[in-house]
Amino acid sequence: MAKEKFEGMLEKLEEIVRRMETGEMTLEESLKAFEEGIKLARLCAAKLDEAQRRVDILLKQGEEPVIKPFQEGEEEQ
User: Fold this and answer.
1) Can you give the pTM of this predicted structure?
2) How confident is the model at residue 77 (pLDDT cuts 50, 70, 90)?
3) What is the pLDDT of residues 14-73, one digit of tens each?
C-alpha cells in the first residue's frame, strides 16, 4: 500500500465494510478483511493528520502562527 492516495484507500475501506456487513463472509475471510480494514483506517488517519499539519502551516501569518481548526466548506476570509 505504498504511497496510495487517500481517496483510493478510503474507497477500499468502504468496500471492506460493505462486504463485512453482508454477513456472508467466513470467519477467516472476516478476520482477514478486518485486519486489512484496520491497516487502511490507520493509513487514512495518518494522511488526515498530515493534511491537518499542512493546513496549520499554511495558516501561519507573519512571525506568529495562527492555527485555526479546519472545517470542510469553510471559505477563506
Assistant:
1) 0.70
2) very low
3) 999 999 999 999 999 999 999 999 999 999 999 999 999 888 888 876 666 666 676 766
Quick check: 38 and 13 in contact, CB under 8 A?
no
Which of 70, 13, 8 is CA-nearest to residue 39? Answer: 13
Which residues neighbour 9 within 8 Å (Cβ) at sequence distance 6 or greater?
A: 1, 40, 43, 44, 47
CA distance 13 to 40: 6
Q: How many residues are present in the chain?
A: 77
Q: Is 40 exposed, middle or buried (0-12, 13-18, 19+ CB in 10 A)?
A: buried
